[in-house]
């Protein structure tokens, strides 16, 4: 089974966006285009009908190697052998859902603020939705939170998060630039005459963003980088030579620094950036003849 | 009549060593490694009278940031001249990097080029040393290269911009003393920059010998730091250095094969030694040796060279660097 960590593009069903076309046909196209996690959301369907759709999607996603999540209904998720359940803020608390679905199934939750995101992380959510980034017809009446919240989540949240809400190939770059590494789309994909093409486009944008900023982030939200300090690889979130030096607590010692072969005068440490792959030497004088 | 001390003081006041435009009040350069403790090192430094102190540049131990940095103990001595070495460098590029790092500390721009090329002898790589010296001199460093005792190489280094040359007496830390006094004598004779004998000295005697050979100073670390009493040895080598310098300036007598009586033979109470036998030949031999010395030759001195015999007489007092 695919791991959640590998998932980049999350697509949610929205049958009202593709009237006249079959749910499975649209979702298959989305998966073939690059969606790697699919959620069944159908606020109108009742129990038996919903279960039937769930089982059909389960079969499809299993065949195509995508994850399958059921919105709102832990019991349907269980009955359809889905990979997990997705909750809204007004749904079952995470703890209660966990008790129902067990430790191995995924639990995701929609969040609309960093506070909700922190709470979800603490409560043991496997992933969160972060949004709505833009106003969306899927959730009419909910105010958009903008890319600001995406940036906050990128800084702070360690579990995977999917930016969601009005995202389409035209604005995805903005969301990715804010720090999102995973996107979720609904109408842009399932409302398109060519869902596969839209997914391919979104995936390409995600992958390009990852190439240009492939760095993990540390707890402080800064970019973590690997630098070689005195011949040893160190992971640091220091942005400047001064910060890097501070992390070693040289104190009063007369230390001289070299960055990539060039001596950096102490007065310039605060203005000297530390970047991925930099080779730093901190030297001092020792006894010698 | 002057006492010896007064003569020495008088000599010292005019006999000043200048390197890179800096007048030094001591010809003793002291290394700072391998002392039993920083306190002993400081006392030895005091006893040595040294003004130029050498260091090595090393990576800070990131695991144990409390480790001792030698400079912490010296910052009160404002008159010191810091001579960082480039030990650990295997080629000119590395030496230049280390020199730049050392200069980055803001403690001057002197550097001792030390590029070891052999794991057991630590003997310096002449080619890389020459390259590094040239580059560093061009960058404005006062460059003192540690080199093998090769007179030609020392001349080349001088031409490359060395402020002084530092030929080794023997490999670093061996205490074997001056293995090739002939070469050291030649180097001192030929050089137009100061010659600091660096490496291999074992005790005060070696310091005196170096100075008598015409060196302008010595650099010692191990013989002081690893002596039973480093502070006493620092003082001993200082005195030996001064004695050797003074001896050099005073001009020693030529070496001769046979005795010359200290008193005139006229008026002696008893007869001359019996003629014939070995002494008869000896008397002639002495005459021949005197003739040879008068011509500046060395008929009976198998090992004496420019530094070992007549070189002293010919050059004593001839230079003052």
Total number of beta strands of chain B: 10
Order of strands in the sheet with most strands of chain A: 7-6-5-4-3-2-1-8
Individual helix count of chain A: 10
Distance between the termini of chain A: 64 Å
How would you name the CATH homologous superfamily of the largest domain in chain A? Aldolase class I
CATH top level label of chain B: Alpha Beta
Task: Work out the oligomeric state of the chains in this entry.
Answer: heterodimer
Largest interface: A-B, 29 and 39 residues
The biggest sheet of chain B amounts to: 5 strands, parallel
Characterise this structure:
The complex is a heterodimer of chains A (289) and B (321). Chain A is an alpha/beta fold and 289 residues long. Chain A has two domains: 209 residues, TIM Barrel (Alpha-Beta Barrel), CATH 3.20.20.70; 59 residues, Ubiquitin-like (UB roll) (Roll). Chain A is built from ten helices and 13 strands. In chain A, the strands form two sheets. An eight-stranded parallel β-sheet of chain A has the order 7-6-5-4-3-2-1-8. Chain A has a five-stranded mixed β-sheet with strand order 10-9-13-11-12. In chain A, helix 1 packs parallel to helix 2 and helix 1 runs parallel beside helix 9. Chain A is elongated and about 85 Å long. By secondary structure, chain B is of the alpha/beta class. Chain B starts with a helix and ends in a 6-residue tail after the last helix. Chain B has a five-stranded parallel β-sheet. A three-stranded parallel β-sheet of chain B has the order 6-7-8. Chain B has eleven helices and ten strands. In chain B, helix 7 runs parallel beside helix 9. Chain B has one domain: TIM Barrel, CATH 3.20.20.70. About 12% of the residues of chain B have low confidence. Chain B is globular. Chains A and B meet through strand 11 and strand 13 of A and strand 4 and helix 3 of B. Strand 13 of chain A pairs antiparallel with strand 4 of chain B.
């Amino acid at each position: 089974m695919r791991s959640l960590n590998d998932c980049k593009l999350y697509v949610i069903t929205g049958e009202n966006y593709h009237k006249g076309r079959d749910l499975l046909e649209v979702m298959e196209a989305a998966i073939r285009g690059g969606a790697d996690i699919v959620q069944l959301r159908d606020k109108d369907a009742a129990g038996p009908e919903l279960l039937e759709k769930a089982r059909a999607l389960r079969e499809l996603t299993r065949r195509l190697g995508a994850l399958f999540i059921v919105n709102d209904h832990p019991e349907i998720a269980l009955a359809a052998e889905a990979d997990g359940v997705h909750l809204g803020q007004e749904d079952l608390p995470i703890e209660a859902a966990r008790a129902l679905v067990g430790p191995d199934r995924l639990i995701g939750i929609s969040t609309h603020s960093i506070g909700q995101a922190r709470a979800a992380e603490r409560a043991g959510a496997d992933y969160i939705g972060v949004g709505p980034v833009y106003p969306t017809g899927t959730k009419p009446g909910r105010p958009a939170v903008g890319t600001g919240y995406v940036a906050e989540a990128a800084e702070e949240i360690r579990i995977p998060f999917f930016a969601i809400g009005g995202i389409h190939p035209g604005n995805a770059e903005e969301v990715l630039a804010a720090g999102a590494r995973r996107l979720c789309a609904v109408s842009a994909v399932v409302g398109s005459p060519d869902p596969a093409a839209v997914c391919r486009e979104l995936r390409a944008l995600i992958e390009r963003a990852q190439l240009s900023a492939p760095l993990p982030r540390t707890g402080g939200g800064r970019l973590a980088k690997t630098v070689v300090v005195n011949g040893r690889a160190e992971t640091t979130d220091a942005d400047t030579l001064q910060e890097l030096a501070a992390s070693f607590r040289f104190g009063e010692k007369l230390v001289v620094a070299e960055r990539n072969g060039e001596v950096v005068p102490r007065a310039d440490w605060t203005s000297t950036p530390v970047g991925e792959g930099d080779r730093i030497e901190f030297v001092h004088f020792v006894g010698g003849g | 009549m002057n006492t010896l001390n007064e003569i020495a003081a008088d000599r010292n006041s005019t006999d000043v060593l200048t390197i890179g435009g800096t007048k030094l009040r001591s010809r003793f350069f002291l290394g700072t490694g391998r002392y039993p403790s920083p306190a002993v090192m400081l006392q030895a430094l005091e006893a040595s009278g040294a003004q130029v102190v050498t260091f090595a540049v090393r990576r800070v131990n990131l695991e144990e940031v409390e480790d001792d940095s030698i400079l912490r103990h010296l910052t009160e001595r404002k008159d010191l001249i810091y001579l960082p070495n480039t030990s650990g460098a295997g080629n000119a590029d590395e030496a230049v990097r280390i020199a730049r790092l050392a200069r980055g500390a803001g403690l001057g721009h002197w550097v001792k080029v030390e590029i070891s090329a052999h794991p057991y002898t630590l003997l310096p790589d002449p080619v890389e040393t020459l390259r590094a010296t040239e580059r560093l001199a061009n960058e404005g460093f006062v460059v003192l290269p540690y080199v093998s005792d090769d007179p030609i190489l020392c001349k080349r280094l001088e031409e490359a911009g060395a402020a002084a040359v530092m030929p080794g007496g023997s490999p670093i830390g061996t205490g074997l003393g001056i293995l090739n006094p002939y070469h050291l004598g030649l180097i001192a004779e030929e050089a137009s920059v100061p010659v600091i004998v660096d490496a291999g000295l074992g005790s005060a005697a070696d310091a005196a010998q170096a100075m008598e050979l015409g060196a302008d100073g010595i650099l010692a670390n191990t013989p002081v730091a690893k002596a039973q009493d480093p502070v006493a040895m620092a003082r001993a080598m200082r005195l030996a250095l001064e004695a050797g310098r003074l001896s050099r300036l005073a001009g020693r007598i030529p070496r001769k094969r046979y005795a010359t009586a200290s008193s005139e033979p006229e008026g002696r109470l008893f007869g001359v030694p019996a003629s014939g036998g070995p002494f008869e030949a000896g008397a002639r031999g002495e005459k021949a040796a005197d003739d040879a010395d008068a011509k500046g030759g060395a008929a009976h001195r198998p090992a004496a060279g420019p530094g070992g015999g007549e070189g002293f007489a010919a050059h004593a007092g001839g230079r003052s660097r």
